[in-house]
Write the structure tokens for this entry.
Amino acid sequence: MPQKRSIPPIPGGGVSSAKSGEFEYAFPAIRGVQAGHEYYVTMCPLRIVPRLFLYNEEELPPEMRAQRSLNKARVPEMARYIVENPDSYIFSALTASVNADVRFESPLGDTGPAERVGTLTIPMSATFIINDGQHRRAAIQQALTENPALGDETIAIVMFIDVGLNRCQQMFADLNRYAIRPAKSIGVLYDHRDPMAAISRLVVSQNPLLSDLTEMESSNLAPRSRKLFTLSALHTATSALLNEVKTNSLTERVDLATEFWRIVAGQFSVWQQVYRGEVTAGEVRQDFIHTHSIALHALGRVGNTLLRESPIPYAWEERLGKLRTIDWHRNNADTWEGRATTAGKVSKSRTNVELTTAYIRTVLGMPLPPDEQRAEDAFTRGEK
């Protein structure tokens, strides 16, 4: 059961009664100016968020809404993140608009920096519209049902006043105009919560070749990059490699994966040539597919079978030695076109991964699992 934690009281954030008799919300706030308009930064207890910021726009046409439709599939994962990490989760501020006459009073004075700090009073009849953060709001609501003790924690709110529908829609467009999801590689690099991310980082750092030739931040390699691999590609491949492999510790998983990739790297002499500076990484990426994420993922899937058959490296070496017999050239259309490439360009759909894995398994003399057999049968029939 979730434990009730002691949270320091938040000044304000309560309910007051105006002179007119109308009840009001009172929030501690800092006043600022942006684009000539006042706005306020405040904080709100999580238990108030679902009641304060109602979401009832699903039945409205897009042109009458101030937000995109809620993607309900995202909410459970976000809620689970809060519930499973009550001591380390972090949510950025919600951005909201309020269509009401508000009062801002500063007890610290009417001039200088002190006038920016005070109490923001908002009628309870006001309507609050979220301009940015509807999925965080929905996740908070779901998380509170699982752990009500979170209700006394707070989230920052940036409030704009009485801006109207057109301005709300423009705010949404502007807030998302330059939003770019960070590359998966840097997500793996900075993720200290996921054990698999830690394993991937350790595997790379413990192999001199991988450490030198892996791009740790970007998930795409520029044509002139001296790197052969991306951390995100190796993370996906290593996750496939260790899937459902039984070990006694994280260290043992790291050791297994490190040894597997050491043996694999030994089968590709051109990787060693890049490491020694004898050929450029760009030439190898252009001419071969074995450094691309689809091939690494396929190798990880093949390796998963080997690791589950035996945790002893010498049991894999002879079979993995057959990787040398494969023609990995991208222009080897008889092998790769429709399987790993489309019109000569590497393609990584799920079916492409299955077909590439199936081909490698066949060369290594391994039976195909049902999903790869179905993909291979369809490919053979010409159902690409």
